[in-house]
Every structure is written in structure tokens, then in C-alpha cells.
């Protein structure tokens, strides 16, 4: 290496004029979508709490079970009865992936997951990867239509 070439190889700082990146390329800050995921046992009140929380925050409410039912064109109970749990879990995982892919577009949201969605290893991995807030609902009090006993954790 010649002395003149050594002088040309200066260390660079990101965003500086001697950076190898073109100005504006790769420098746009990534926007973060705020999402609260509610998990808990079936009937614990995830939908009730989720609707109330979304209303309070002025955010969108999304119920994963509603998405599954719409896509499958039948109720959760019918899916279990007619196709079994394995098929339901497959549909649940597919809808969760679709939902997560659409979150940046959807904006801030409160999402009620199905009772068993979070305990499935692949689903838990997907949720951990999005680095959002996950709240566990054991039951809710004081909301219309909520279970009579329990507490929100």
C-alpha cells in the first residue's frame, strides 16, 4: 500500500460524507407499530378486555379467532368438530403469520389471541420476534359480559 492510497482509506462514520452508502439509502428509521397481545385461557376475557383496552387507547381491536372463522367460513367449534385440533392449530398459525405480516400497515392494535395460540412453540417464537407487549388475562372484573371471578394480570 502506497502512502497516497493509505491517506485515501479513511475510516468512515455512518451518515458522514465519506460513508460508502449513498445518502438516504438504508438510513430511514424503521417505524414501530405498537401492539398489545392478550393471551390467556379460553373464556378468560381476552376479547372483552381487548375491546375495552382498544377503545380506551383509540387503537384497532383484532381477535385472532374472528380471523380464523372468517377465513375458514365456519366457527372455531365447527373446525374442531369437523377437522380436529391439528387442522385448527394449522389454521391458527397461518392466520397469526398473516396478522403479524399486516401489523405495520394496520397501525396500533390490541390483539386477542386464541386460548392455545401462545403455547404453540412456533407461534410463541413468532410473537417473541415482533417484540411487542404481551399481556396475560386470567379473567377480568367490572366489564360488561366479563367472568364474575378472577383478576387481570
Overview of this protein structure:
This protein has 153 residues and is α/β, with parallel strands linked by helices. The chain has a domain at 52-153: 3-Layer(aba) Sandwich (Rossmann fold), CATH 3.40.50. 44% of the residues lie in helices and 11% in strands. The protein has 5 helices and 4 strands, in the order H-E-H-E-H-H-E-H-E. The protein has helices spanning 3-8, 46-57, 64-72, 76-106, 121-129; strands at 35-39, 60-63, 109-112, 133-136. Strands 2-3-1-4 form a 4-stranded parallel sheet. The longest helix is centred in the middle third of the chain and has 31 residues, at 76-106. The radius of gyration is 23 Å and the shape is globular. The N and C termini lie far apart (64 Å).
What's the structural blueprint in terms of helices and strands?
Blueprint lengths: L2 H6 L26 E5 L6 H12 L2 E4 H9 L3 H31 L2 E4 L8 H9 L3 E4 L17
Parallel strand pairs: 1-3, 1-4, 2-3
Helix pairs in contact: 3-4, 4-5
